Amino acid sequence: MSPWEQLFFSEAFFSASLQLALPVLLAALGETVAERAGLVNIGLEGMMLAGAFCSAFGALAGHSPWIGLAAGAGGGLLLAMIAAYACIALQADQVVVGVALNMLAGGATTFLTRTLFGIGDRPVVPSFVAWEIPLLGRIPTLGPALFHRTPDFYLAVLLVALAWFVLFRTGAGLALRSSGEQPQAAASAGIAVAAVRFVAQGVCGALAGAGGAVLVLSQVHRFIEGMSAGRGFIALAVVIIARWQPALAAAVALLFGAAEAVALRVQALDLRVPYQLILLLPYALTLAAYIGWTGRTRAPAALGKPFSLD
Amino acid sequence: MLSRAAAPVAAVLLALAAGAAILVAAGRSPMAAFGAMWAGAFGGPESLGNTLRGATPLLLTGLGVAWAFRGGLINIGGEGQIYVGALLAVLVGLWAPGLPAAVHIPLALLAGFAGGAAWGALPGWLKARWDKSEIITTILLNYIAFWFVSYLVAGPLMDPQSFGYPWTAEVVPSARLPLLLPAPFRVHAGVALGAAAAVCLHLLLWRTIWGFEVRAVGEAPAAARLAGMPVPSRVVTTMAVAGGLAGLAGAVELLGVQWRLSDFFSPGWGYSAIAVALVGEANPGGVVLSALFFSALSTGAASMERLARVPAAVGDVIQGLSVLFVVLAQGPGLRRWLDSFRRAGPEGARAR
Q: What value of ipTM does the predicted structure carry?
């Protein structure tokens, strides 16, 4: 096989794409829930970063990646609650609050990391190991890529299905979507819009935090300052490209994962393409998809607008 | 005027207090840390010069963000616009030798402005024509500009004598900004340019029809359209000016301080500029003050890290908290709550 064939037609490429898509997918899933309820989170990036930091700290302190995952979700949740209080209770501007949270998360995680570990090497944290699903894992080629993976992958697949089911097949989901489309009408139908938005925001923060945690616990294995590297912003674009649909978000996130996998493998295979141009690729691809994806896309009608009864 | 400044000043003081609390929690002495910070920002001619020079890119980019805010647009693309502006400025600064400084400097500054303006106009056009969120497009364009510059300075534009460092050669002397105050201050002419830009923007916003239209489009786009204003083209030009100011910031920093472009050229001025514009309440005068404050904060934090061994990132925390507190003070919820408190005392507030 030529190196270029090795780049695309290999199990390793497919497998890497799936893994690299996970952090963006989890954040995009959370943001889908929040935006369906009418909240836009520019602070997604900061929530991922806080999640990554807390997961590394939690996994180290609790000697388990599961404790790390829970801590990561908690870190994202904490930031989301600050945003929820500011945007829902005080009706502050959602975009600006998000910008502030990103600065805060960047500064706080760097400050804490430098305080705890100095400027030396960051410790490697207990990470997820792959689980093989019996029988299915033995299928040639597809088996190892799909059914011999770290548990966070299976969890993400379940969460996509769960998000779709709750959003579109339950009363709670209907209440959530109506809070994002017609909050006044929802309120007059007896839905507590502010409470619904608080919960949606919490789900978003926990999922974005989990996305940051996955970045640490099954990809990088340690915390590095600024390691979310724009994935939260990419997740924001993914939500729109995927038209606020969980399953489509998974597909679009996979596209991003593939772009990142190409970047990594071009470097590994030494194809003599400048790595900076390869690292540019996921962002250019996301921008192109965002611009090119016309057709009938419509955001939730009350997205980004504060809600009050008077 | 005084009451208008009360909210941001209170927010900044609160953020500084929170920063002190964080230092105490981390087992550090806030007095020693803030003392080192103050000395690093204002403690002598060299420090003062550093603070002024550092304020200039923040001021120019912050003015652009403020201008966009006035036009109802959120420009998170300052970082990319700075890099594109600096790129065009370094090209002119490297490859037009033999020009007199009186031509070379304005040409390089103009190139920087044009580069940033193009990088800002693109998301403006996407917004006006296809209704694509400028928030998302400007953020993505930041990363694209950064990695493209990173490729150029390590590839085609790399200084042959850089010993492997990813940076360009230095711009020729005729393109370098002259010093207004010599060493130890080392304040270059770009500082005056920043101040002049603030005055111009103030006049533009409040004394011209263009500024009136920008504000009208920002505050009531539907009414502006009914009044016959060309709303889509205003969106494009507003973003072009915002980007141009950020590009100018990149050019000024390049021609006045660094002389060469590298991929660690900007420490995140494009993002800090959002804080600068918000704390300055999108008024040119306020932006000048808040650019000085945030520059002092980061200059001071850097020397605090050296002298008191406290991570400089505490400055970023204070910056983020300042923005959060300002926006909380501006949010209608808090304001209404405070109003009801004033009207009826604590009982009224509780009854709400």
A: 0.89
